Amino acid sequence: MLEEHAVYVDLETTGATATHDRITEIGIIEVNHGRVISEWSALINPGMRIPPMIQSLTGITNEMVALAPAFADIHQDLLRRLQGRLFIAHNARFDYGFLKNAFGRCGVTFTARVLCTVKLSRKLYPQHVRHNLDALLQRHALDCEARHRAMGDARALWLLAQKWTAEQGSAVVRSAVDALAKSQSVPAGLADPAFDTIPASPGVYFFHGDNDVVLYIGKSINMRARVMSHFSGDYRSGKDMQIARQIRRIDWQQTAGELGALLLEARLVKQLAPLHNRKLRRNTQLCSWHWRDGDTENPPRLATVAEIDPAHFGELYGLFRSHAAATEALREIAAAHELCTVLLGLEKREGACFAHQIKRCRGACAGLESRAQHALRLKTALVSMRMLPWPFAGRIAIRENALDGETTELHVMDHWRHLGTARDASALEAIAGNRALPEFDVDTYKILRRFLAKPLSRAAIVELPE
Q: Considering only 36-40, 125-129, 405-409, 411-415, which range has the smallest mean pLDDT?
């Protein structure tokens, strides 16, 4: 007997992402004191097409759901069936995440105690490797009358619960249920104490999947809390839901503080290229506008990532992930300041530019404004995008102390480049003495700019001898 008041739930959906895909069928078996008191199922109109592969798997077609109610039409009745009961499902985070999101779109916050039968099977039968529903039904010699249909799979879970109680005894099963319901945020692919050893301190954490592939790298000033937040059960992020299904191991690396965590994350994401990191991935199309102040003869030109030299940041404006983004930014500046698109190199033509013809250029291309005046206005327009020159004579070390007072890290920097992090004098000497400079990295530049803008940051800076 798993619980006095429980519901065995299964969903069929249009796909695997709770924030994008939708529910097509719901099956619920309500159990009180070890006895089934009701069964309820319904087809749901998802408001989108069901992919052919999903139709083939479940047997639920677009025609079958065309006249079915939408989730919003049945959500109040469904809420009454679920509220206050232990929510039991196979790989429960999937079903729970879909329902949380579906209720949320109706303006309802749904929460429940959750029990995952994958995790319960692992706990009761640790000698076995496979715990998917097909493997469990075969192992326990149980039949499912309608596999991959919501009510059929919900009934299969109820049969498994009875089988486990008969084999293990109600006391053993109930103890396992109580333990799992308290640790409901641990994904099925992880051991239950997965979060216990993660320190509540700054650092970078790693999610690994099958074959130890790196799925995701993140950073936080409290790694344990941040890791647990990925698996809160709400799954507002489709990425978190995918990670929860794929994760097999968590690793981490502590840092003294937030700056060290930011720098380490930026470097390791580019080095390891995790599947679910996007923003910090290496960008080979990075570019910036290069223009010498007051140049009346030459328009701004795009400097590639290989040409971006922090020693000449006074002549560089903006950092862009692509040539298209850089061009669009310059066009917006030209429109806002009535600059000439011909003189900016954005338009290839003789005579007046198109903007002048519609009275959106002050006429430098038509002799109504001198090139010197145009260059001065261009300088004013670009000032907010100007790259910040390195504000030190040479290399520096930024001292960062851990809150426990036991760890100090020295982050060595040179012209917006992170050369390395040292925790003792010998390591500092080795890093500072290395004359090789890494490639300029836009994320490191942004991290340092934000750090140096803080009022107390300069107190932690040590200028190093050349």
A: 405-409
Nearest to 280 by CA among 67, 40, 441, 47: 441
In a domain, 141, yes or no: yes
Domain carrying residue 446: 396-463
Q: Is residue 99 part of a domain?
A: yes
Do 217 and 272 form a contact (C-beta atoms < 8 A)? yes
DSSP code, position 365: G
What's the CATH number where 229 sits? 3.40.1440.10
One domain, residues 254 and 297: no
Confidence of residue 145 (pLDDT cuts 50, 70, 90): confident
| One domain for residues 15 and 162 | yes
What does the pLDDT look like over 208-222, one tens digit per residue?
999 999 999 999 999
- The C-alpha atoms of residue 457 and residue 465 are separated, in whole angstroms, by 20
* 40 and 112 both lie in a single domain: yes
| Nearest alpha-carbon partner for 93 in 116, 124, 63, 113 | 116
Q: What is the pLDDT of residue 113?
A: 85
Give the CATH number for residue 93. 3.30.420.10
Number of domains present in the structure of the chain:
4
Q: How far is CA 154 from the centre of its chain?
A: 32
Quote the tokens at residue 298: 């030459």
Query: What percent of the chain stands above pLDDT 70?
Result: 94
pLDDT on residue 458: 67
Tracing tokens 């862009």 back to the chain, one arrives at 320
Q: Dihedral angle at the C-alpha atoms of 64, 65, 68, 71, nearest 10 degrees?
A: 150
> Does 345 reside within a domain?
yes
Instruction: Please compute Rg for the chain using Cα positions.
Output: 30
Average per-residue pLDDT for the chain? 89
The residues facing 83 across adjacent strands are none
User: Is 166 inside a domain boundary?
Assistant: yes
Last residue of a domain, one of 221, 240, 272: 272
**Contact at 8 Å (CB) between 78 and 11?**
no
Report d(CA 98, CA 94) in Å as an integer: 6
Picking from 246, 272, 298, the residue at the C-terminal end of a domain is 272
Other Cβ atoms within 10 Å of 27 Cβ, number: 22
Question: pTM (2 decimals)?
Answer: 0.59
What is the mean pLDDT of the segment spanning 182-186? Answer: 57
Check whether 167 has a pLDDT greater than 70.
yes
Kindly state whether residues 369 and 318 are assigned to the same domain. yes
Backbone dihedral angles phi then psi of residue 261, each to the nearest 5 degrees: -65, -40
Is residue 131 located within the same domain as residue 152? yes
Exposed e or buried b per residue across 411-428, where buried means at least 16 C-beta atoms within 10 angstroms of its C-beta: bbbbbbbbbbbbeeeeeb
